[in-house]
Structures are given as C-alpha cells and as structure tokens.
Design brief:
Blueprint: H1 5-41, H2 44-64, H3 69-85
Amino acid sequence: MANIKSQIKRNRQNEAAHERNKAVRSRLKTYTRRFRAAAEAGDRDTAEEVYRVAAREYDRAASKGVVHRNTAANRKSGMAKRLQRL
C-alpha cells in the first residue's frame, strides 16, 4: 500500500480509469456481438445500423487509448467485409 500522498491519489485515478475502460471494452464487445448476430441472421439493415454505431464506438475508444488504433481498424475492417458479403 502506498504511503505517499501523490501515489495514493494516482492509485485512485488509475482505479477510476480502469473501471471506465472496462465499461468501454464491454460495450465494444456487445456491439460486436450484436453485429455478428445480425449478420448471421442475414438481416442487412440491422447489421448496417449496428456497424455504424460500433465503428463510431471503436473510433472513440481508440482516440481515448482504450484500444490500440490498429486493433480498432482491424475490427472495423472485419465487420465491413462481413457487411459487404451480406
């Protein structure tokens, strides 16, 4: 356990950021799951809508540093390819 005041604060900040990042990653997984379900069902309209939202969320997460920008690009690219096959 930290004894230094600044380190105690840093630990508190890290914990808050960790919880925030966990929520963002969970939301990304949810959108990816929804997209995959819509694509497997062959529902192009729903898949397009979910893709738009998911792509925006991936961009936002990448800009905040929650996921690496290349990871976000790869996930978006995979979803876009899947959407084109529908």
